[in-house]
Amino acid sequence: MAVSKPDYDAVVIGAGFSGIRSLWELTQNGLTAKCFEAGSDVGGAWYWNRYPGARTDSEAWAYALNFAPEVVDQWKYSERYPSQQEVQGYIRRIAAHYDLLRHIQFDTHVVSARFSEKENLWTITDKTGKATTCRYFIPATGPLSIAKKPPFLGLDSYKGEVYQASSWPKQNVDIRGKRVAVIGTGATGVQIIPKVARVAKQVIVFQRTPNYVLPGRNYFIDDHEADEIKQKYDDTLKKASVHPFGLAMDFTGKTADKVTEEKDIRQTLDSGWETGGFHYMFETFDDLFTSAESNANASEYIRQKIRAIVRDPETAELLCPHYPFLSKRPPCGHFYYEAYNRPNVRLVDVSKRRIEMYEKGIRLTDGEEHEVDMIICALGYDAGIGALSEIDVRGLNNQSLGELWARKLQTFAGVLVPEFPNMFMVCGPHIPFGNMPVILDAQMDWIGKTIRHMEENKLGRIEVPEKTADSWGDHVEEAFQATLFSQSAKDVGAWFVGGNSPLFYFGGVANWASWLDKEKEATWSEMQFTQPRGKALNHL
Ligand code: NAP
Fold it and tell me: Which Pfam families does the UniProt record give (predicted)?
């Protein structure tokens, strides 16, 4: 049987961090590659999320790529937590520096991807019906890219302005003097609320579940600090690559059994709180994820801070979470709790009543009405599997990926899926929960080496056996069960749990990487390879 020549060796979907990193890896390996991107520019999440206050929650020195020596030259962040504009600019600079923009076709919405068993080729089809064939299919669609649509009854009857944070308009949205409703108090809502409060006439925040919001303590990076960051660039990213969550942070050696004096516990938590952001999670008690005692102390500490910051006791109580810290991903705030001290900000509890809409604003199911000029929805995402389930991806025997995952989420280390040959996911489900740029660097490095192995040995197809994926799946579950929030995260509807199983790996970046490394070191012995003309090889 003659094998058709594909249009490209590889097709990448998405031009965010992971898509750009993928294009670099593929072109370095001498492959022809095409990238389809739904937006009109690079950036992915950082292209779409241009809402007021959008910035990273990871620190500028760790929210960076490290795949080639000159990448450091593209690092020019000016704040501890770079803004959306800066991050998008960074991604664009990287893409331009490595001449990757020419491989990207913007404004292109991919609707399906089908594998041909006879030819070992994928056919990627866009919304206009145009089909492109390739040997390697690299969905780099992001873990948080499909926003939840507002489910509110009566939405169509509402006459005011409605915005989704995740697809904020490019043109200026005039908020000045308006009565604004914000629905959602996750990391997105927490960034929007203090910004909007500065200019709106009134802000009404609709909160279903409170979050433990950590103070970001953002600042401008001056030339001296920028110099230091660049000098330490490699070391910082090396350190981040072995940190369980991909951050350049240190264990403190402190645990509940070692630090028992009230004043020492306080000092440890004060130190993390004052340093700001995720340092409260990772540089206070090393057992926050596993010790009920440490976690309870850290949770109570934040509740006390909320009560100290927010002047109105009733509002402060509503803002206090009562589930274990980390059951939801803690947002990084910039004067979030302080915003509730403004006379124009009001918190409305919707934990026991549903939001509906009417002509003039929001009506709760108990009849309470709030007249507003604008509604901002920050409702979160169909995380992990959403983007790939939305595209009609079909592997062997016309099997649908969305349907497979609806039954059981199966991957090997968040990269491969049984019965979906030659599909390499970047930042798909089952990757470690943590700082994405660091994780995807490692992931794409492994994918690059695997593809190189296939190219050098003329292997037409890679498949991961179901039992290998099952072992990984069991390990993902085991790592999640080892956290103290495995049940409470489900109870509070954390986005990193899908249905009943974890969408992400909580065993740490290094452990995850060891599964990939082991496979590479054993010359991919668990994988099944097939030569282009269908002759099966056990392994090389
Ligand atoms: P999220 O954490 O899932 O928060 C969504 C919010 O909307 C929650 O408060 C949720 O309430 C509420 N909500 C959803 N449906 C609702 C309904 N029908 N009625 C009332 N409230 C409703 O989503 P997110 O804020 O977009 O953040 C998701 C993740 O994206 C973050 O955890 C983070 O990893 C990432 N992110 C990162 C940054 C950054 O790095 N700077 C910024 C933004 C987002 P419940 O809690 O009750 O469900």
Answer: FMO-like
